[in-house]
Amino acid sequence: MININKIARPNILNLQPYSSARSEFRGKEGIFLDANENPFGNLNRYPDPFQRELKEKIAGVKRCNSRNVIIGNGSDEIIDLLFRIFCNPGKDKAMIFTPTYGMYRVTAGINNVGVVDIPLDKNFQIDTEKVKPFLDWPEMKLIFICSPNNPTGNIINEKSVTFLLENFKGIVVVDEAYVDFSKETSWLSRLDNYNNLVVIQTFSKAWGLAAARLGMGFASEEIVALFNKVKSPYNISSINQQATLEALQDPDKKDRAVALLMKEKERLVNALSGSARVTKIYPSRANFLLIEVDNADHLYKALVNEGIITRNRSREIKNCLRVTVGTPTENDMLINAINNIK
Ligand SMILES: *Cc1c(COP(=O)(O)O)cnc(C)c1O
Fold this sequence. Notes:
- The protein is an alpha/beta fold.
- It has 2 domains: 4-249, Aspartate Aminotransferase, domain 2; 252-340, Aspartate Aminotransferase, domain 1, CATH 3.90.1150.10.
- It is 37% helix and 17% strand.
- It has 13 helices and 11 strands.
- The strands form 2 sheets. The protein has a 7-stranded mixed beta sheet, sandwiched between helices. It has a 4-stranded antiparallel beta sheet with strand order 8-9-11-10, with helices on one face.
- The radius of gyration is 22 Å and the shape is globular.
- It starts with a helix and ends with a helix.
- The structure holds pyridoxal-5'-phosphate.
- Pyridoxal-5'-phosphate binds next to helix 5.
């Protein structure tokens, strides 16, 4: 067991959090004269600051305890809160494995936290030998692992994640934004074994709710308590909580979308591997493909001219584009465009 309070910033530990009207009185019924709201209307009341109903539903679907759930305004808010809770600006450090999701570095920068960047190996796996020298740094507070990794699409080996969990005395974050597309078990199942593990998931991808900005974190109760202290009181709007509750009523709908997209991904792989300009398609456990082409900058621009927007990742991985799996019609248009562009 790790003493989480020893990793957190002292000012956060000593912080007396804001106590909102709705956290002081928790009942549902009553005459509410406590929060200076307009008494008329439908959206006139502040939302539950602790999103209890939503957390119960999420815990039910994910088979975990609602006391271990964190909700963020997108997982990006959870990433930001991790830096604000654990990293002293100008002093502490975080580790990332590149190429990976860009927000870890940007959020570190916003919080004035230095980044130790360990490149993934040729199979896009973590080289634990390269990590070892940094694990004992007292300033090293956070390690971000993205699995399935964006933009490479692969799962990070269980062995390396376990190695980090067992040898690092700070917080290990596993970002599982694409977990619904992979058949891998989530690290969520290991939450009880490691009180320094934070698993991040989102409603933005498989659940089709990117507009609702709903991210989930799963962590030990000590870590959840720190999040509740630091997050803004009403960070998730009632509208967004409601939209998510509705989606949770019908998880089969998400599963059907995932099944269709995975079939479409296979179809894209088959069609694109026959194309003369595609030199490699990386295996993907997510809803996107990383494809290596003859000239990524040229193809990217030519696709934009056809109205098809992909992500040009060629600065990180030579001549590679990341393409999201779309609807069958959209995928047909992509295949045609790639085959016909001069
Ligand atoms: C898309 C994505 C997210 C999602 O962020 P939200 O703020 O929840 O929309 C998080 N992590 C990774 C790796 C992603 O690709």
